[in-house]
Amino acid sequence: MNTVFQELYEKYHHDVFQFLFYMVKNKEQAEDLVQEVYIKVLRSYDRFEGKSSEKTWLFSIAKHVAIDSFRKQKGWKSKLLETFDWSTQQVKDHAPLPEEIALQNEQVQQMYRCLDKCKMDHRLVLILRYIQALSIQETAQILGWTESKVKTTQHRALKVLKAHMEELQEKGGNSNAS
Fold first, then answer.
1. CA 121 to chain centre
2. Of 47, 67, 145, 166, whose CB has the highest number of CB atoms within 10 Å?
3. Is the model more confident about 25 or about 13?
4. 64: enclosing H helix or E strand
5. Which residues does 54 contact at the CB level (< 8 Å), separation at least 6?
6. Sign of the dihedral defined by the CA atoms of residues 13, 65, 151, 114, in that order
7. What is the pTM of this model?
8. Burial of 98 (0-12, 13-18, 19+ CB in 10 A)
9. How many helices (H) and strands (E) are present in the chain, helices listed first?
10. pLDDT tens, residue by residue, 71-96
11. Nearest CA among 100, 108, 105 for reference residue 130
12. Sign of dihedral through CA atoms 27, 15, 94, 32?
């Protein structure tokens, strides 16, 4: 079991962390949730039937851990997100994550803020499909949905995200607009 666990950890740790980071938007909390995911993996690996890939199974566990985390912290999560300013907050690390580098780009920051305005189902699909680059089939397995529902939700989520981005541009104004 130790070698299987080690292999899973080495293969998917970054992807699971990245998914959770996009969900909770806090590095320390994402690290804590990753630990929780792997504790659940250790406890339940003997029940893994292989009906999906190990990666899909891990992401399914990570999704449940993230949702449980949101349920536990509903009140203070909103306050934290309202006061957290991505443009000024710097997480010090010797090797910055790709997400931290990308957040420096204003357009990506806008999209990231708009993603947070999307409802949970939309956010999950957008993160899994576009940030984690999972297939429709893998996304469906992780979410426990049909592929058709993933496609429909993805279409609607992109439409909503685009509307939020257009609204943000209208409100904030694009300083480069002519």
1. 11
2. 145
3. 13
4. helix 54-72
5. 8, 11, 12, 48
6. negative
7. 0.62
8. exposed
9. 9, 0
10. 776 654 454 444 444 444 444 444 55
11. 108
12. positive
Residue 169: name the closest of 111, 99, 86 by CA: 111
User: Which of 112, 134, 117, 116 lies closest to 125 in space, CA to CA?
Assistant: 134
25, 73 contact by CB (below 8 A)? no
Q: Is the pLDDT of residue 101 over 70?
A: no
Cβ within 8 Å of residue 31, ≥6 positions away? 17
Residue 146 pLDDT exceeds 90: yes
Please give the structure tokens belonging to residue 76: 């203070």
Specify whether the CB–CB gap between 140 and 147 falls below 8 A. yes
Per-residue tokens: 45: 């690996």
Instruction: Look at the block and give the residue holding tokens 């000024």.
Output: 88
* 2-15 tens-digit pLDDT: 787 788 889 999 99
Contact, 36 vs 23, CB < 8 A?
Answer: no
Report helix, strand or coil for 138: helix
Mean of the per-residue pLDDT values of the chain: 80
